[in-house]
Amino acid sequence: MSLRKFFLKNTFTYKIYLIYNLFIRHKLFLRRSTYSQWGEDLEIINYFKNKQNGKYLDIGSFHPLMYSNTCLLYRKGWSGVNIDLNQTTIDLFNIARPNDLNLCRIIGSEEKKVKVYFDSLFSPVNTADEIFYKEHKKIFFKNKFIREVISEKFHNIVERNHISEIDFINIDAEGMDYQVLQQIDLGRIKVSLLAIETHYVSGQETKDFLNIVQHLKINSFSLLKRCGPTSLFCKN
Fold first, then answer.
1. 53: which of 79, 98, 112, 228 is 20 to 30 A away, CA to CA?
2. Running DSSP on this structure, what letter comes out for residue 24?
3. Has residue 143 been placed in a domain?
4. CA 217 vs CA 40, 146, 178, 220, 233: distances in Å
5. Contacting residues for 161 by C-beta, under 8 A, at least 6 apart
């Protein structure tokens, strides 16, 4: 039995593993110059270099440190909302960022339980998109398991939690980025910068690339810079 499987056997050892993951494996107290996978956070920090105590929204947040596009903002004094379909992700955020609002949800067009395909509890490719799962199952999802997660309209989350200010939005929803983007009323929420996956790691455009660009153009956003699979769009 692997060390991880041993610690995931019950609630007590699971909590120990969360602490290990944050403080030992990912060295929570060690400050770094960047946390993003493709250097996105350096561009984001530079864009907001004169703003203190801003607000972020991270949808598909995955981990408070690893591959995080919001960790540098948090270190700078920002706070915000982190949403992910994996409860383990939310448990990690509740430890690392207790002052943030951390929610285990799927952003959807209706409220219902949705089937989620898990590669593992600590994987960045867990998804509610069946097409994404089928396209990637030859590489990932070797030990796949399925759980149901609540889907909720973004408007309801905003209203219930009194979210009125968001400076930066990060969307990384593993195949559902455009569907999530459509749920956010960019005319009502005054967002300055938005990061969203528009390409695959290979550089090929995602299936929703043109829809994403057109949607953001209609809402007066233009491309600022592309960092790997992620595109940064700023408000005109």
1. 228
2. I
3. no
4. 21, 36, 14, 5, 9
5. 81, 101
Q: How far apart are CA 75 and CA 33, in angstroms?
A: 11
Q: Is 179 found in the same domain as 226?
A: yes
Q: Strands, DSSP E only, in the chain?
A: 55-59, 79-84, 101-104, 106-107, 112-118, 145-152, 168-171, 193-197, 221-227, 230-235
Tokens of 112: 């219902």
Are 69 and 12 contained in the same domain? no
**Against a cut of 0.85, is the pTM above it?**
yes
Q: Are strands 79-84 and 55-59 parallel, antiparallel or unpaired?
A: parallel
Determine, yes or no, domain membership for 146.
no
Burial class (CB in 10 A: 0-12, 13-18, 19+), 9: exposed
Task: Please report whether residue 87 resides in a domain.
Answer: yes
Instruction: Order the strands of the 101-104 sheet from edge to edge.
Output: 101-104, 79-84, 55-59, 168-171, 193-197, 230-235, 221-227
pLDDT in tens, 118-137: 999 899 999 998 999 998 99
Do 80 and 22 fall into the same domain? Answer: no
Task: State the pLDDT at residue 5.
Answer: 64
Q: How many domains does the chain have?
A: 2
* Cα angle value 48/108/206 (rounded, 5°): 65
Which residue segment(s) compose the domain that 21 sits in? 1-30
CA distance 109 to 112: 9
Over the stretch 79-99, which tens digit does the pLDDT of each residue have?
A: 999 999 999 999 999 999 999
Task: Please indicate, yes or no, whether residues 12 and 71 belong to a single structural domain of this protein.
Answer: no
**Tokens describing residue 157:** 């989350």
